Amino acid sequence: MTHPKFPHTADDQTLKARFRPVFTRIAEGAVQREIHRTLAYEEINALRDLGFGTLRVPVELGGLGASVHQLFELLIELGAADSNLSQALRPHWAFVEDQRLSDSESSRNWLRIVAGGKLVGNAVTEAGHGAVERYQTALTNTPDGLRLNGTKFYSTGSLYADYIAIHADRDGKRVTVLVDADAPGISQSDDWDGFGQRLTASGTVNSVDVAVSEDRIIGPGYGTAGRTWSTAYLQLILLASLAGIARRAEQDAITWVRPRTRTFSHAPADLPREDPLVQATIGQLSAAAFGARAAVLAVADALDALLDAGATDPEQLDEVERSIAKAQSVVIGLVLDATTRLFEVGGASIASGQYALDRHWRNARTLASHNPLSYKHRSLGDNLLNGTPLPYQWSAGVRKRAQA
Q1: Which pLDDT does position 265 carry in this prediction?
Q2: Which of 43, 70, 258, 278 could bridge 66 with an S-S bond, Cβ 3.0-4.6 Å?
Q3: CATH number of 230-386: 1.20.140.10, 1.20.1250.20, 3.40.50.620, 3.40.50.970?
Q4: Which residues are bridge partners to 174 per DSSP?
């Protein structure tokens, strides 16, 4: 059932025709950005100018009116162009979806602001026990009004954003505060030092006596107890990025093999493209990309149905959470294997740094590390065997699964 307030009105072919040219340009510069660690400001702005950030904003509020399925199809394509960018926009999509589900004039106003081209980043994670036990970042009352202070790490996309959703403690409760990215007292650093996904702008955000008005407290903070659609949604964005990497690995392998004339002395064919072993490897890469994409879009369809129904039914929420757990296992396995197998289509020259093909495995491994499979497998099995509630988000102050 389509959400009565916000029906899906976007056309698949129109959306693809709109964004594929910019995806192509983004892909053309991906290797040089990787080699020189050049943050993708121009590329993000090109997406912004075409209204990419408005995909899930309803048409009546100025957006493109895309379904979740349509969004994730495009995220996979963007991930194939540059997986840094599909991840960098992750907090933006969560913000937009939250506003879509909120029935208030304030949420509609924020959707109109997004429709005007604004992007939202986030600042959730802290060092130590920050995100699990209690945020050290605090929103406090002072004689001069509310003030925000604290330090956040892994602030994905915030250097590209106009607003930052900062999660903080307010008198023992978790809240989300939306601040201007250039507000006095906000400073950001591109200090993410991971070996993959290095251009996601996942650095540090510092807040020093940042003035906050009550209308900028937009909801509870991450880790508030209860079932939520956002766990599966956020994880699926990572899987879409992984599916994009698999697609790019397939394309890069084909591009490498087709013109190549040099082969091994003991190869069964004179040309690599005629070598049955190379052909089999290309077939495996293509199958991996197909399987990863299919798994992502299957969960996207389930999320479409969940969100259209208001995302409140406990059984539906649990089923989507089980689906994302299964998809995570499938996609991660396929993509990590594919990004290793890619190198079997060439000799040592394929490892040359000028091609930066190692970025595919490094990026995939980094994305996969966000939600370790061992934990996901165990929680899924415990739920199926014993009916133990799924983890969703950790409840504040206690290490037990949040329950509705």
Answers
A1: 79
A2: 70
A3: 1.20.140.10
A4: 169
- Strands (E) in 89-222, as ranges, are 120-123, 138-142, 145-155, 163-170, 173-180, 186-189, 203-212, 217-220
pLDDT of 203 above 70? yes
Beta-bridge partners for 188? 205
- Domain 123-220 CATH assignment equals 2.40.110.10: yes
Buried b (16+ CB within 10 A) or exposed e, 46-69: bbbeebbbbbbbbbebbbbbbbbb
**Dihedral sign computed on CA atoms, order 278, 279, 283, 286:** positive
| Domain edges within the chain | 12-119, 123-220, 230-386
CB 130 within 8 A of CB 168: no
Chain mean position to CA 168: 22
pTM: 0.94
Q: Which two tokens stand for residue 193?
A: 């030092």
Q: Which residue in this structure is represented by tokens 């591009």?
A: 255
Q: Give 367-379 pLDDT, tens digit per residue.
A: 999 988 998 999 9
Q: What is the DSSP string of 11-48?
A: -HHHHHHHHHHHHHHHHHTHHHHHHHT---HHHHHHHH
At residue 393 the predicted structure's pLDDT band, cuts being 50, 70 and 90, is low
C-alpha dihedral (45, 48, 53, 58), degrees to nearest 10: 170
Q: What is the pLDDT of residue 132?
A: 58
Let me know: does 233 contact 92? Beta carbons within 8 Å.
no
With tokens 């020189």, the residue in question is 36
pLDDT value for 396: 32
Averaged pLDDT for residues 4-13: 75
Identify the residue whose tokens are 């509705």. Answer: 404
pLDDT in tens, 288-334: 999 999 999 999 999 999 999 999 999 999 999 999 999 999 999 99
Architecture of domain 12-119: Orthogonal Bundle (1.10)
